[in-house]
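Reopening this one. Same input as before:
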Amino acid sequence: MLIVHGSSDGLPKFNEIIQLCIVKDNPIFIVRGVCAWYREHYGGFELSESPTREVGLIELGDLEDPYPLVEYIVAGLRMVILKRFVLVKGLKVLVLGTGSIPLALNCDSPLERSGQECLTMSNPAVLRVIFGDGSDSRKLHMVSGIPKTVDEVHDLVKASFRLHQEFRLQYMDSDFNEFMNLTSVSEIQKMGTLKVIYTPLEEPYITLYTVEPTASSSPVPNTESSSLASSSSDATLCTSTPHSSPEVHTSGLSWPLVFVVPKFSYEAELELQQKNTEFETKGTHFNPGPKLKGIILDGLAQEMMKYTKYPKDYQCEEVAAALTKAHPCLGQLGCKSGFSGWKQSLKYKMQNYRTKLGRLGHPEIRVNSLKHKREGQGKSAAHIKKPRKAEVNYIPLHPKGETEDSLESERIALLTEVAKRDNEAVIKAKMEKTFSYRRQEVVNQRPRIEDFKNRWPALFEQSEVNAEFLRVTTKPLRSKFLSQFDNFTVKLMQILQNKGGVKGQRIKRFLEMADSCSNIDLRRECILRSLVVYLNEDPDAFFKEYESTEEAEGDITATVMGIYSIRSQGHQEPDDIGVVIEGVKVMDNISTIINAFIVLFGLIYALDLAYPDSMKYTFEFVQKILMNLDGHKLNVKIQQLKIKLFA
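Same output, byte for byte:
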């Protein structure tokens, strides 16, 4: 069993109970510390053995929470989930229900300087939340009391119950004894009732797609009826209403961890099953004829098209390996892997499919046709525009029923909405609707940043940068970055401290500043700067500091890409922090350097930009290690760092 005692980098520290002793009627735990980092996908902490294997004693009275935790196994990983609110010696770790991301605030640090306030438990509240017709009701614990605004209540309900569809809230009015729209938090009473009203969908329709099986999927008996008439053992049939998710007008899915071979036609499955049985009994390989081979390749290509139009070499190899594993009779003699021929055939088949899609006018394929290339680029292989940083929705199709003219009208209307106050919901909906139109403009026309900002000013807000990154990659930006960065902090600092030479001395100065910081964002900034130095890059050339606005303005126009901060003499806190791209100040008044770096990373994806040469290794580390986007092929530097991190 596990107990929580202490904290590390804003997250609780877990200890494994070895033995319980009673000393003078006081229980004392003999524990061994374990390493833990937050796994957003599972909504819990993954545990691993501590390299130091340090053993200690903890008295019952020293525990912040005496509630014991039990670990469990998911896909071979040791996992644990916090069950309740934990207070860790001046550091509050608030868990908004099972599976949410812990929020840590240091109540001893001078957060007043940045306008933040620590959470308190003076007025905890419990509410009943009703979904639908009332048959589904759940309890919502507000350990820090009722929030100060309706938006905060909305966000709390959304985070606690993991709601994805847009909704509004109603409360039970005591005068009329009916549910009424919630407009003020003063209308919420302790032990009161809220009701979730989902926003009606436009043109509702259902899309069916397959998702990879999970570890909890129950096996299906290997019978003829189950293998031919049912595909439940290979894939799970799911439904979604595209208008309620970021994939309103996209069909892209992230490349699966395990590729699931689709079911082919009934005749093909029957013949393959007979040949598989023959292979198991006699060891005879099967060389399918042109018709059957075409059916197999068509099925695989259609399944691959759900994830990417331009599969990489390793992806074709994974699909070929999955095919020969699902149907052993299709293994090929004469090659070491047993599926090299299938791999090459898949590449040709995907090329043929792209040709067909291009003739049908698919935007992601059409952009690379010869007639759409600029003068001097009249070669089919010249300047291919395709996903290079694991973008899932690179150039998506327009929403159903929309044209370029109608979406241009939406863009013009969006300019008016941006000028209005408290209009985030309308702006978000219109940005969602015009995503495909905006992506085609970014990829096809390559506009200047200044012109693009004038056309799409709503994109240059932190919330919309996060939303755009989610649309492009299907992964959250800020929460994913911070959780992974904090997970690697301890191990990363150990690696950085071992660096020698002049760079090692410079890194040590940054790490000393990190150790002396009580502000978690300043600590993250120091570690990020140390990482830049470790990768033989210059942080001062990228993170530029100025003492006045006039000094900054003169230098910003010559900056290709970077982050600036203006700090007046005698002031510890910066007056302004912003992001510069192509000599244009695209965003300013950002709270911290680490947030500015996250925003810049998101803008690189939103604007389809290349990484700056002076920081390409740092951004590759963020993309492939922290965000886990296309981490199969790494630079030598990043590969060596990854080996040390996971050692």
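So the earlier flakiness isn't reproducible anymore. For the record, The longest strand covers residues 26-39.
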